[in-house]
Structure formats: C-alpha cells, structure tokens
Amino acid sequence: MKNNLLPIAKQGWGYTLGAILFFIIFAILDLGFLQFLAFIATAFFVFVFRNPEREHPYYQENSVVSPVDGVVSSIDEFKNDEYAYRLEINSTYLNVSQLRVPFSSTLHSIEKQNGARLSRFSSLSKSINENTELTFIDKNSNRLKIIHRLKQSFMGIDIKALKSQKLYQGSRYGLMINGVTTLYLPKNFRLNVNVGSELVASETLVGYFTKEDKTTK
C-alpha cells in the first residue's frame, strides 16, 4: 500500500480531470451555463477528494485514534459479547474522505459486501447498504473491528490495504465518501470520547487498550 501525498486522492483524479475536460469543451463551444456547471463539478470533486497531511500526535503504545473524520452519533455498551462497546461515527460530504489506521496492527480480516446506497435514516440501510468489515489485531492481541457503511454516495468504498498486511497508526488505508463507521471495541478498552464528539482521523484519541485480561481470541 503506497500513501498518496498529493493534495487530491488518487481515487479522485478521474472525476476531477473529467470535469476539467468538460469545462474546457464547454468554454470552446461558448456554452456558458454548462461551463459554469462543469466549474462547480470540478470544485466539488477537488473538495471531496482533498487529501490533507495530518499531524500524528504522540500517544502511548496502546492508543487508538479515529479512523475517520465525523461526529460520534451513538455509543452502545454490550454485556456477554465478544465486544464491549459499539461506537458509531457519522461522516458527510463535508468531511475528509480518507480512512486512516486506528492503531499499529495487522489487518487480520477484510470482507466487502456490495449493496445499495440508501440514506442512513432508511430502515433498510444497515442491512442492504454497501459495507466493508475489517478487523485489526496488534502484537498484544488487542482486537478492534471496523465496519464502514455507505450512505447516499456516488462512489463505492475503496480499501487499499490487504489482509495480513502490517499497518501503522495514522497511515491511509482507503477512502469512503459520505458514510457511517462503526467501531467495535473490546472489554479492555477505555473510551475517551462521548456522543457528539467531533473526530479527526489520525488526530483524535478514541481511547486506550488497557492491560486487563482479554476475552477475545
């Protein structure tokens, strides 16, 4: 997996260049209104595919940072389950779309399910919308599961990381435009965010794995 350090994510080059091409064509044909629409489209693609560099604050070894930009919409606690917490993060077109590794770990599993792109307010969105499930495990056997689920988006979820690949905290591993991210956290995790917290990928501390005995295997 190679990081793209350009100001626009690679996934957006085709969209942006296509919009610029139409802008030039409409300018040559003197089609003012269509030229204006092409300009708006160009600006839109540059914005949603923006690829800013992020600072990587120094947190202790067992820290977990947010994998996405967005707002925490819910936090649920489970009992007698493999995971103890479920944290849901809502991202929109206004957020940076890059996905970033939450903690230095190995990508244990990845599973993509194609589907619809319904609004998150639809009762069917959680069952039929396109989603990708990833599980990360670190050298201390700390486990974290992430599910990225699309809302109404013009582009599918794009994951560049590979199964069994070693990844480093804060590095890019994919892209999702306008979606919901759900984090499943184990019992030995201490949360550092609340409902309504605004998260910045690779910069906001979600919490820490503690040194308590783990129940996952």
- CATH architectural grouping of the largest domain: Distorted Sandwich
Shape: elongated
Largest sheet: spatial strand order? 9-5-6-7-11-3-2-13
Please state the structural category: alpha+beta
What is the count of DSSP helices, taking H or I runs of 4+ residues? 3
**CATH top-level class of the largest domain:** Mainly Beta
Percent of residues in helices comes to: 10-25%
CA-atom Rg in angstroms: 19 Å
Number of domains: 2
What is the H/E string?
HHEEEEEHEEEEEEEEE
Model regions low in confidence, pLDDT < 50 over at least 5 residues: 213-217
Strand proportion, as a percent range, falls in: 25-35%
What does this structure look like?
This protein is α+β, with helices and mostly antiparallel strands and 217 residues long. The protein folds into two domains: 10-48; 63-209, Glucose Permease (Domain IIA) (Distorted Sandwich). The chain is 17% helix and 32% strand. The chain has three helices and 14 strands. The protein has helices at residues 13-28, 32-48, 125-128, and strands at 63-65, 70-77, 85-90, 98-100, 105-113, 131-137, 143-150, 158-159, 166-167, 172-175, 179-185, 189-191, 198-199, 205-209. The chain has an eight-stranded antiparallel β-sheet, with no helix packed on it. The chain has a three-stranded antiparallel β-sheet with strand order 1-14-12, with no helix packed on it. Strand 2 and strand 3 (85-90) form a beta hairpin. Helix 1 packs antiparallel against helix 2 (32-48). The model is unreliable at 213-217 (pLDDT under 50).
